[in-house]
Each structure stands twice: as structure tokens, then as C-alpha cells.
Amino acid sequence: MVDHAGHVYLPGELICNLKESEKTSKILVGPGLRQDEESIIVTKCGLLRFKEPNFYWIDSHLKRYVAVKGDPIIGIVAAKAGDVFRLDIGSSDLATLSYLAFEGATKRNRPDVKVGDIVYAKCMVANKDMEPELVCIDSNGRSGGLGVIGRDGGFMFQTSLNLIRKLLSSDCILLKTLGNGMHYECAIGMNGRVWVKAKSVSHTIALCNAISAAEYMSNEQIKAMCKKLTNALAGF
Amino acid sequence: MCEMMCELGQLTRCDGDACLMQGETCVTTAVYGPTEVRINKEILDKATVEVVYKSKVGLPGCAEKMFERIIRNTCETMILTTAHPRSGINIIIQEMQNSGSYLACCINSACLALLDAGVSLKFLVAAVTCLIDNEGEIILDPNSKQEKDGKALLTFVFDNKDFSIVTVNTKGSYSSQQFKDCTSLCKKSSKQVFEFYKKSMEKLLSKDNFVK
């Protein structure tokens, strides 16, 4: 039943009596859970989460990213190899990014990407047997914010994957609250990388510190911190 | 069972780590993975598990290699290696203090570090050491002095699914009845180790539940 949610589970433990969907009497299991014949077995250590009507998954603290299809990712160009760029995305393999997967790119008009550039891309192919494949366009051929970022300033830093999930969840007010006090741009990659750019270096540093400090804060604490931060930046 | 204490997440660069103290014996383990792996060690359909054992002083010899092999085989059975093909999971075990029941402490700390790293596992393992002394008495978690005087030293590793034996490592001579007695005694105390894992992870993850 729903009571399972929020408890810590260890690998090898069985979970029984999960809530099934009323129509199909099925359970959908996500990361950290595995079906073994009739029962559900835990494979990762973490808190069990539940979402209506029948979704279950394990929320675990990973430091190492494993590519998932559809994830926005911040990669660093490690090499140029013929038709593709090879990007370090922090997982076990380098990811590939075709030079045609940019907005307005054609065979003749190659995108301007150099080794060491930071690229914000989406994961198109994520399969445990193949290397991840990235793109910087959507299905309409538009970039939608994807592409090479950070050419004119900004700063990228690494955080835990748990914090990234928190930042992107609809309950978290951090990015919105920070925006009340200052103007900034940011890109958040599911692989634990965050890129921020504000109008000055001190603002950027403040943003980085605020984001890294917010991992275990509640929304009230975040509000208080942001207020303090804007005051400090204004020189009070 | 002697008292167990652990610290998780003390090292910053690795994906998971654990410092485990069992009585006076202490081991630190770091886990990296899934990472890239050297081409000649790459396996097409599963992850390569590597264990590196670092003793406090001296160069690694045959005994250390044997030690690595035992831990590697134990870890490989518990890791869901098929979930990360063509990648590597590296486990580095650093001796801090060896005061007996050493193999058990190493395996338990490797298990905790794998938990901390969030590597997909089939089950958990708990290792327990016992000693048969010259009077035929069984002593759980012997210290190094007792180990020197004992007749046989047995280390058992159990899983947490149906508490079956994963690994056995023995030294010395013993009867089959004694082996059976040791197995059932160690099996009983392995449950305490699993409880310890659960308690440690609940403590580590409690701050998470508090926020959400």
C-alpha cells in the first residue's frame, strides 16, 4: 500500500502489497526496483517513492550519472572525430553529438564547436549497451536553448544528482526566488552539472553558493537565504 | 558480536565510500563506478569488477592477491553486473587497523561502500568470522591474539535474501559437525550485520525525508 513510500529499502529486500492500478491491476516500477517473477525486488539503496496511481521508484543518492533518454545534459567537448563530437557527460562512456544535430547546421555549414566548449544537449539514445547520443535540436529543428553555452562568461560547477532533481521539481522555489533578487541565466543538466551566468562575477559566485547550499533546505529556509543573499549583494 | 561503527561519504572524489570499524579492526573502502574500463578487461555483457587491496605497509604479495580475489568474487556475485555492460566497478580497500576478523570487516565495508555509491545490487552480503580454539569452543569475532592461538578460523558470507552462504574461507582443521555449528552461529549473527546496514542507511537518508 501507499504506506511503503518514504521508507528506506536496501537491495535484496522484497516489497509486497504495492498499490495496483484499478483498471489494469498493474504496477509500474522505476529506477531501483526490479521484477522477479511475482515479487518486486529492490536493487538500489534509498527511499521508496510513490506517485498516483501506480508508480513506484527508489530515490537514491548517486554521484555517478547514468544516461537516461530525454534528459537535458551539460557536456564538455572532449574530442572532434570526423562527423561527431565526443562529449564528456560524467558517465562511464563519452557521449556522441553529431555536427548535424545543431540548429541551422548543414553539411556545408558546420557548427562552431571547439574542444573544451560546454554544450547543453538532450539525450536521444540512452541504452546500456550503446554509447549515449546527444542532440541540440528538437523535432522541429529548433534549438530551444540547447547548443554551445558559456562562450561569453558564466560558470559551471558540479553538484549531486539529488540536488538537480530537487531543483527541477515543481515544489522547489529556489530558482524562482533567486530570480526575484537578481537577473541570471542558468542551465541545469541531469548529470549533476549546473551552469550559471549573472551580471557580475560576485553575483555568479553568490548564485553558485546558494544553489549548492540548498540541497537539504526547506522552502522557508530557501526564502530566508535568498533574502539574505540579495541584501548582501545590494550592500546592506 | 563486537560493536560496529561506520562513516559514509567522508571521501569527496569517489562515488561511494565507507569507513567501517568492527571492534578494533578498521577498514576504509572507496568505490568508483560504473566507470570506463581498459579495453583488454572489458566484458561485452557485464561490468568488470576490480578490487584493489592496499595494506598499511609493504608491497602487495601473494597473500594480498588472494585476499583481493576472495573479495572480488564475493562482490561480483552481489553486484547486478549485467545492468552496466562494458563498464568497470572499482573497489579500493585500505587497511587502517588489523586486529582480527579482518576478511569479514573488509567484505562488510565493501558492501557498505557499494550501498553508498548506489550501485545496483542483487542482494547484500554480511561476513562473520568465528574461531575454534584449542578446547573446541567457538568464539565469534576473534581478535588477532585469539586468532594466533586458535585451531581453525572460519569466515562465512551470507546474503540477505534467504541467508544462504555466498563465500566461505577457512584456515586450520575442524570436523564437519564443528563446521555446521559455526555456520548456524554465524548465520544468526549475520542478521545483526544486516540490521546495522539498515540502521546506517536510514540515518544517512533521514535528512532527505525531513525536507520532502
UniProtKB/TrEMBL annotation, chain A:
Extract the GO molecular function terms from the UniProt entry: RNA binding
Q: Which InterPro entries match?
A: Exosome_RNA_bind1/RRP40/RRP4, KH_dom_type_1, KH_dom_type_1_sf, NA-bd_OB-fold, RRP40_KH-I, Rrp40_N_euk, Rrp40_S1
Gene Ontology CC entries for this record? cytoplasmic exosome (RNase complex); nuclear exosome (RNase complex); nucleolus
Provide the protein's localization.
Answer: Cytoplasm; Nucleus, Nucleolus
* Primary localization class, coarse: cytoplasm
Domain K Homology residue range list: 154-201
Q: Give GO BP annotations, semicolon-separated.
A: CUT catabolic process; exonucleolytic trimming to generate mature 3'-end of 5.8S rRNA from tricistronic rRNA transcript (SSU-rRNA, 5.8S rRNA, LSU-rRNA); nuclear polyadenylation-dependent rRNA catabolic process; poly(A)-dependent snoRNA 3'-end processing; regulation of gene expression; TRAMP-dependent tRNA surveillance pathway; U4 snRNA 3'-end processing
**Keyword match Endoplasmic reticulum:** no
Transmembrane portions of the chain: none
Pfam families, alphabetically? KH_6, Rrp40_N, RRP40_S1
**Domain Exosome complex exonuclease Rrp40 N-terminal per the UniProt entry, residue ranges:** 29-64
Q: Which UniProt keywords apply?
A: Cytoplasm, Exosome, Nucleus, RNA-binding, rRNA processing
Superkingdom of this protein's organism: Eukaryota
What residue stretch is flagged as signal peptide?
A: none
Keyword Nuclease applies: no
Member of which family? Belongs to the RRP40 family.
Concerning PANTHER family, the annotation shows: EXOSOME COMPLEX COMPONENT RRP40, PNAS-3 RELATED
What is the name attached to this protein's record? Exosome complex component RRP40
UniProtKB/TrEMBL annotation, chain B:
Q: Which UniProt keywords apply?
A: Exosome, Nucleus, rRNA processing
Pfam families according to UniProt: RNase_PH, RNase_PH_C
Q: Tell me the InterPro entries matching this sequence.
A: ExoRNase_PH_dom1, ExoRNase_PH_dom2, ExoRNase_PH_dom2_sf, PNPase/RNase_PH_dom_sf, Ribosomal_Su5_D2-typ_SF, RNase_PH
Q: Where in the cell is it found?
A: Nucleus
One GO biological process this protein is involved in is:
poly(A)-dependent snoRNA 3'-end processing
Is-annotated flag, keyword Cell division? no
GO molecular function terms listed in the Swiss-Prot or TrEMBL record: RNA binding
Q: GO CC annotation: what is one? A: nuclear exosome (RNase complex)
List the coiled-coil residues. Answer: none
Transmembrane portions of the chain? none
- In this chain the Exoribonuclease phosphorolytic domain maps to 4-119, 125-184
Q: Chief localization class?
A: nucleus
What family name appears in the similarity comment? Answer: Belongs to the RNase PH family.
Q: What is the protein named?
A: RRP46
